[in-house]
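Tutorial handout. Part one gives the primary structure; part two gives the three-dimensional structure as tokens.
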Amino acid sequence: MARFKSQFNFMLKFKRHIGNKIIWGRTNNFFYKKEYIFSSFRNNIGKRYLSIHEYLSVDLLRSHNVPCPEGYAAKTAEEAEEKALLLQNVCGDNDLVIKAQVLSGGRGVGYFKENNFEGGVHVCRNSMEVKEIATKMLNNTLITKQSGPEGKKCNTVFICERFYIRKERYIAFLLDRNSDGIILLGSSIGGSSIEDIIKKNPDAIYKLNIDINNGLTTGQAREFSENIGFKNDQLNIVTDMIVNLYKVFKKYDCTLLEINPLSELNDGRVLCCDAKLNFDDNAEYRQKNIFEKRDLTQENKEELLAKKYNLNYVSLNGNIACMVNGAGLAMATLDLIILHKGNPSNFLDVGGGATEEEITEALKIINNNENAKICFINILGGIMRCDIIANGIINAFKQVKFNKPIIIRLEGTNQEQAHEIIKNSNIKCIVCQDMNIAAQKSVAMAKIIEIAERENIDISFN
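Part two.
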């Protein structure tokens, strides 16, 4: 659990730099009683986990005796029609639901970029309608409130039976840094996002800390099920369900297992109607079957490329690119940029042992980021020598036409040699020894470029 604790600490600390309304700290409770208290983990941008598609999550849960809807995945419109017919033969002549399989929340209210088709979740009366909707979804890009403007490519659809739901609830397992263990969250209210639930009714959330050594007992699961409103025969069903979900969470090294909604149907059944599972990247060596399900088309291309060169890169939404050595210095750099009213476009930690090749590739990634208007390089030469960084910068300029202004702060081991290397290279950049001044200049330069673009003034940096 020590690894889990440090990972979770990093996620919470990192989140405070990228959300305008998020301020993190330790409290006696897991959540702040203000806003955006759960999204730090579930939607964490600086993620260290694998996320798999809904239909794969449902298959995994069903194989561990967790009641889930019957459904089939399809990759073509023709296959979707066939699976819809098969599903109606199994479940009866009921309405069907078709869902776009993209790794992003808010699918139901999203739209497809190529054809402006609205909604990634639709109810269909028959297989012909399923085929028609699948044609509009497949091989198109779904844009949601969580996907960003680039959206996510829909390569698969999931067809399942439509249910008539009496009540929706919420449950989730996740890691808790305060207890150094697993936490079980639940609510008698479900269907909408947990952030909205807590914002409207914080008392509707129940929390159970699970001792990692003793595990979750049947008695604890039963009491928890009662707290979120289950009674009689349903109480036994949900108790077993929660115990099985915990086994899945622990067996597969999950960082998050979220069921929303946990649905009570009109016929009395209780089903996990939507599942979100995240898996610890550090467990890939022992969860090979799970990681084979990874869909690289859903992941950020820059982050995948950075991983290839051992770079710790996270895309953000601002316009100031950062290249820093060390996660602590990187977070402090983002703090300074935010303090001076700027917005970082990435988190990029080149680490303490980066080679010239890795530095070159890091700058190539930054150069290809259209949202980044300026590059702030902040290096403290301890393990990483400043002259290596300087040579990497020069090599990058030789290999690619770097079209963004650069502000460099190099301080530490071999800083004099580094400054001399940069000076003799004739690279146009601003060199600062003071970190705060460098951050100020970066923000000012980004604002100048932003104003120029807004006023259609052509400026370039060569």
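Part three, for discussion. The chain has three domains: 2-10+27-52+164-291, 70-161, 301-454. The CA atoms of residues 324 and 330 lie 5 Å apart.
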